[in-house]
Amino acid sequence: MARAKGRIGRDAYPVAIRAGNHDLIADEGAALGGGDAGAAPFELLAASLVACTAITLRMYADHKGWPVESIVVEVHYLKEGDLPARIERTLALEGELDADQRARLLDIAERTPVTLAIRGGVPITTTLL
């Protein structure tokens, strides 16, 4: 289970977030009236996909004993005009990997938990207290 809780006051627009045992700040950039005190909401979404992808690939490579020195994941959340939003993800794998290992890691990236949650459209239930 993952959990997070946030609070915003009257200031525009920093949100103090407690995610698990960690404190974060989210905010909007100046273009949207915020103070850029933290990552914007869609930057946090992109960051969660980056983290999940990198961690899952590291776990898989370690389990297989593959010589992966580093994994760099870059994610762009793109929303342009009336076009549907899309996410572009790139992977850079450093290490002595053959073509089959690289292809398998690419396949694993397509099935990480956050990837599947985003693609599946996780239902959200909202309750007003």
Write the layout of secondary structure elements.
Elements: E1 4-7, E2 15-19, E3 22-26, H1 41-64, E4 68-78, E5 86-95, H2 99-109, H3 113-120
Antiparallel strand pairs: 1-2, 2-3, 4-5
Question: Describe it for me?
Answer:
The protein is 33% helix and 27% strand. It has 129 residues and is α+β, with helices and mostly antiparallel strands. It has a three-stranded antiparallel β-sheet, with no helix packed on it. The protein has a two-stranded antiparallel ribbon with strand order 4-5. It is elongated, with a radius of gyration of 18 Å. The protein folds into two domains: 1-38; 41-120, K homology (KH) domain (GMP Synthetase, Chain A, domain 3, 2-Layer Sandwich), CATH 3.30.300.20. The chain has helices at residues 41-64, 99-109, 113-120; strands at residues 4-7, 15-19, 22-26, 68-78, 86-95. The longest helix has 24 residues, at 41-64. It is built from three helices and five strands; from the N terminus they run E-E-E-H-E-E-H-H.
Instruction: Give the proportion of residues in helices.
Output: 25-40%
Largest beta sheet, briefly? 3 strands, antiparallel
So how many helices? Answer: 3
Indicate the mean pLDDT. 97
Major sheet: order of its strands? 1-2-3
**Total number of domains:** 2
Into which percentage range does the β-strand content fall?
25-35%
Instruction: Tell me which CATH architecture of the largest domain applies here.
Output: 2-Layer Sandwich
